[in-house]
Amino acid sequence: QLNKKMGGDLRKIQTVGKYMVEVWKAAGMDLSRVEFLSSSEEINKRPDEYWTLVMDIARKNNLKRILRCSQIMGRSETDDLSAAQIFYPCMQCADVFFLRADICQLGMDQRKVNMLAREYCDDIKRKNKPIVLSHRMMPGLLEGQEKMSKSDPNSAIFMEDTEQEVSTKIKKAYCPPKVVEGNPCLEYIRLIVLPWFSSVEVKRAEANGGDKVYTNMEELEADYTSGALHPGDLKPALARAINLILQPVRDHFANDPEAKELLKKVRSYKVTK
Q1: How confident is the model at residue 246 (pLDDT cuts 50, 70, 90)?
Q2: What is d(CA 179, CA 169) in angstroms, rounded to the nearest whole number?
Q3: Predicted TM-score (pTM) of this structure
Q4: In terms of Cα–Cα distance, which of 48, 209, 168, 74 is closest to 157?
Q5: Which of 44, 48, 83, 50 shows the shortest CA–CA distance to 67?
Q6: Which of 176, 186, 107 has its CA nearest to residue 143?
Q7: Measured at the alpha carbon of residue 15, what is the angle toward residues 7 and 20, in degrees to the nearest 5?
Q8: Fewer CB within 10 Å, N side or C side of the chain?
């Protein structure tokens, strides 16, 4: 609520959480070995323990250190933050210990608060620090976008996007010929397509070099840099691969009544920064 996601409406936030579970299920996650916890529900069970922890973290850090964590909310240190938003990093840091997390696996934009948790261990003389696994952020599809934004539909691929929506977004994506640096289409292939399929197939006319299957980024980037692989051939290959990944998710939301209703609700929500 404090970072104003979904307008700060806890019921909407919980609905989005249930929607995400349906996405993971459809994408192949084995739910028999996973337990999902709602932080707000856990806090309500043991409020004394939680808020004592939050306050201790707040006492052991100065304002400047906490403001450096504002990135976790999609804000910067210079933004006009409410008192609640300044307090938010202390709460997220407390979650690590309150929920007994041994490993914190989050995006790079959450790294600062994860490091705050490790520093807090030094403050309280705790030897077993949480392990931080920070994954790369997917770049936005448009020029100059360091990461995708759910408030800008053209910058991101959503898990329930239709086949045509995916193709249209990738067709419009920033993909300058012979340029690898800052090219989101190449990043999608590097971080999603190749790990998922172990290869990517480019289909093209014989006059343009004929069909070719790439099994590593080095060869693909070499061809792209030389001009042997053109954006006009790369983009359709990327769109086909992404659509193959997303099809089971689309099928799930189309055929499962509960998932279908969740998606309808989530789509009705106004997205906030």
Answers
A1: very high
A2: 19
A3: 0.84
A4: 168
A5: 83
A6: 176
A7: 110
A8: C
